[in-house]
Input
Amino acid sequence: MSRLRTRPTRDDTRDRLFEAAARIFEEQGIGGASIEAIAAAAGFTRGAFYSNFKSKDELIIAMLADHVEQSIRRNLDLLDRHKNLADFIDALKNMDKSRQDPLGRSPLLHMEMILFVARAEKRRPDLAKRLRARRKLITDIVETTLKNSGRNGSLNPAWTGAIVLALEDGFRLHRLIDPETTPADSFLRAISDLQRAIGISSA
Output
């Protein structure tokens, strides 16, 4: 009796390529990583890679898009369960990172990939879409937590969201440059300090 041969779905193939690419990028650098090495690390042929992505740049854009989509779902789910800022920050601190996508598990790789893509001017509009989506997510979080703290209208959520996002990316870049003086939790610590400074209660 012959066995049924099961093939990975398109989503499974992409996920395996994402995981393999993250490993190869961290080991060999983004610029030095070859499509052959990524495909082999995922257990696929070069042809399987090209059936999903036209180039390494397209793979990277897809990984960034996937990360933003997963981050939005994850954060909105947390916000639904933790509606004040202090509790939301605590939930972020205690989140199980092992279950996140490769870029969620490695914020430094995320920043490296953003910088790599940003060097190509024609790719910047793709990055801009992800940036706007991230900014809107943080704006929604700020708006919801301000409303639930009774301080709705005390701050401009869109501008505050832009500041918070710049702060997050800044700490990621600083950690990439000088990890010794930039702890992994620097961003969340800074947000907690700001929350106390502007007097948003945890009630």
Notes: Residues 57-197 form a domain with the Tetracycline Repressor; domain 2 fold (CATH 1.10.357). The chain has a mean pLDDT of 88.
